[in-house]
Design a protein that fits this description.
Serine Threonine Protein Phosphatase 5, Tetratricopeptide repeat; mainly alpha
Length: about 375
C-alpha cells in the first residue's frame, strides 16, 4: 500500500500457502490483508472525519512529515517536527504522530543536530505516549526501539522493542531494517542478514532500506555489498544522507579516498557542516595523507565546541583524524560518561586500528559492548 501523492510506503507483506484449495487460499489471504490494513484505514477514516471540523487534514500532515523525516537534514527534521506537532494539536491522541515525533527527535540526536540528552528525553517521552495510545501498532514499538538504539546504551531494551514491533506486524519493513543495523553492530551477522533480506523483499524501492543495508554491510566488513546497497539507495533518492554516510565510511576502508571525500562533502553541505561529519571528513583526509586538511577540520570542531553544541563523537573522530591517541581516548571516555550509545561507535572501531587494544580505549569499548571480534556476512546472492 503506497500513498500515490508522494510515494510514501504505508504497508506491505508476503503470504505463502500450499496450493490445495485455491479459492479458500484467496479468502484466507484476503482476510489476513484486511486485518493487517485495518489500522491504517482506521487512521485514514479518522482523519477524514477530522476534516469536517478542521481546516487541515491531520493524516496529510502526518504523511508530509514522514516524507520530510526521511530526508534527514536539519531543516527537514525541524519541518517534520512542526508537522507532527500540528497533527497532535488537532488530535492529541494521534499515536502515529507521537511515534513519528519520537523518530524525529532520535534522528536529531543521532546526527548531533540537537544535544543528545535533550533529544533522548524528547524521543523517549514521545515514544512512551505513542505506546500508551496504541500498544498494538508496530510504529509505537519501533519508535521506542529506535530511541534506545540511537541515543542510549540500552541495547537489550531496543532489541525487545524491535521484536515486539515485528510480532505485531511481521511485514513492517522499517523494523526489519533497523533491527538488522542493531544486530550488525553486535556482529550477529546471520541474524542481521536475515532481517535485511526480509526488508528488501518487503520494500525493494525504499532508499531507507537500501541505505541502512549499506551501513550494515560496512559494519560487517562486506564492503562490495555496502557499495552496492549505497548506490542503489542513491539511485532511488539522490542525496539520501544514510547512503552517503555508509558510502563515505566504506570508501575510506577500500582506500577510494576521492569518493569518500565526495560523500562526506555532500553530507557537510546537506547538514550545514555538522561537526559529526566534519569529524568523518578529518578521518578521510588523514587516511588520504592530507594531514594539513585534517588538522584544519579538527580545529574547526574545537572552535565550535566553545560556542555551540557539538556531537560528543566529533572530538573522537578529530583525534583519529590528527593521529592523537590520547585525545581520542579522552574523548571516547567522555562519550561513555554521558551514556552514549555504542551503535555509532561501532562505525568508528574499524578506524582505530591497533589503538583499540590500548587499555583506555579498550576499556571504553568494553563498556559500550564493542570489544568483541566481528564475523562476516554472506555474499550478495543471499539478498536476491
Amino acid at each position: 500500500m503506497v500513498n500515490v501523492a508522494d510515494g510514501y510506503h504505508l504497508w506491505s507483506s508476503q503470504y505463502e500457502r500450499e496450493m490445495t484449495d485455491g479459492f479458500g487460499i484467496y479468502d484466507e489471504i484476503a482476510e489476513s490483508i484486511v486485518q493487517a490494513v485495518e489500522p491504517t484505514l482506521a487512521v485514514w477514516r479518522q482523519s477524514r472525519k477530522k476534516r469536517q471540523s478542521a481546516d487541515v487534514d491531520p493524516f496529510e500532515l502526518y504523511v508530509k512529515g514522514r516524507h520530510l523525516w526521511h530526508q534527514r537534514t536539519p531543516d527537514s527534521l525541524q519541518l517534520a517536527i512542526a508537522h507532527f506537532q500540528e497533527v497532535i494539536g488537532i488530535d492529541p491522541d494521534y499515536a502515529l504522530a507521537h511515534a513519528a515525533l519520537a523518530d524525529s527527535y532520535s534522528t536529531l540526536g543521532f546526527y548531533g543536530y540537537a544535544p543528545m540528552a535533550d533529544a533522548r528525553a524528547a524521543a523517549e517521552g514521545a515514544a512512551r505516549r505513542a505506546l500508551a495510545l496504541s500498544p498494538r501498532r508496530s510504529e509505537s514499538h519501533y519508535s521506542a526501539a529506535l530511541s534506545k538504539m540511537w541515543l542510549s546504551p540500552e541495547w537489550q531494551t531496543a532489541e525487545r522493542s524491535f521484536r515486539r514491533a515485528l510480532e505485531v506486524q511481521p511485514g513492517f519493513a522499517p523494523a526489519h531494517t533497523h533491527f538488522a543495523a542493531l544486530l550488525a553492530v553486535q556482529h550477529r551477522s546471520q541474524e542481521a542478514c536475515a532481517h535485511l533480506r526480509e526488508a528488501v523483499a518487503l520494500d525493494p524501492l525504499s532508499p531507507a532500506v537500501h541505505g541502512t543495508a549499506a551501513l550494515c554491510m560496512f559494519t560487517l566488513g562486506q564492503y562490495s555489498e555496502a557499495i552496492h546497497f549505497g548506490e542503489q539507495a542513491l539511485k532511488l533518492s539522490p542525496g539520501f544522507a544514510v547512503a552517503l554516510y555508509a558510502l563515505g565510511l566504506t570508501y575510506c576502508q577500500t582506500r577510494e579516498f576521492d569518493q569518500a571525500g565526495e560523500a562526506f562533502d555532500r553530507l557537510l553541505s546537506l547538514s550545514e557542516r555538522a561537526p559529526y561529519f566534519l569529524g568523518w571528513r578529518a578521518v578521510a583526509c588523514r587516511l588520504a595523507g592530507r594531514l594539513k586538511e585534517a588538522l584544519s577540520l579538527a580545529a574547526e570542531i574545537a572552535v565550535r565546541q566553545t560556542t555551540e553544541y557539538v556531537h560528543p563523537l566529533a572530538p573522537v573522530l578529530a583525534g583519529i583524524g590528527v593521529g592523537d591517541q590520547f585525545a581520542t581516548a579522552n574523548a571516547l571516555n567522555g562519550y561513555v560518561a554521558v551514556n552514549g550509545t555504542g551503535f555509532q561507535v561501532g562505525h568508528i572501531v574499524p578506524f582505530l586500528g591497533a589503538w583499540k587494544f590500548e587499555p583506555p580505549i579498550h576499556a571504553a569499548l568494553g563498556r559500550l559492548h564493542l570489544a568483541g571480534a566481528p564475523e562476516r556476512c554472506g555474499p550478495r546472492r543471499d539478498f536476491a
